[in-house]
Model the fold of this input.
Amino acid sequence: MDNRSKAAKITALALLLALVAAVVLPSAIYVAQAQAEYEAWLKVVTPAWKGTGYPPVFPDYPSTWVERYNLTKIDSKGEPTLEPNVEVMVYYQTVSNPNPTPYRVFTPNGTGFVKVAWPKTWENVTIVVKAKSWYGENIRTFSNKLYEGIILAMIKVNPTEYEYKRIGIPTTYVGKNVTIKMDGTIGTPDSPFDFTKNGPVVLWKSTGVGDFATIYNKPEKAFVTQCAVIWMKFHTHTWYSLNDNIAYAQV
Done:
């Protein structure tokens, strides 16, 4: 067999393998992407938000901009926009993997509504709201693990006893619906829509992840998520020495 015949056979084999990969790989990718998911709606707010504590969740009137759209970034002129300065992530936390990477990152709209999703195979889900900068830049590492970045709010659905202990919840509350409020006190919501007691940390034990998705399946039934943040407008002032290259200060 001459070299040209060998080369032709090798080329034919390579083309055959490429054809198989072209058929098999997209199918595998599709199966991974088509993973069945639960979906739930959140309404992300700060203590400045003035709205109803029960569904349908909407702001009271009259209300100012910050009382309605208080999680949006500021433009270069110092004016508020309808672009969010937070992002929402979902995690699957276990004892063997206490600081996981996110399954997916979600962006709320200008009024704080966001639909999140996670695989139906998960036994629990941790939903986290993390801060962006005043102007909307990300404040996080590339891997964006659970305990990286600036956490503004955390919801744990169907948490384990280990997660209660990790957060520091007293043993008398283990296995119950618990919220840690802005003043550090612990609240126990009476119903799935008792958002008046919500704080930045929520451990929701009365329902599984599937029921959580069913209860909060519409924007008007969104889970009101209180973020531990108060945004204040500020200005930057810079001073230089007379030589303009030695002393420097910025406040």
About this structure: Residues 37-226 form one domain.
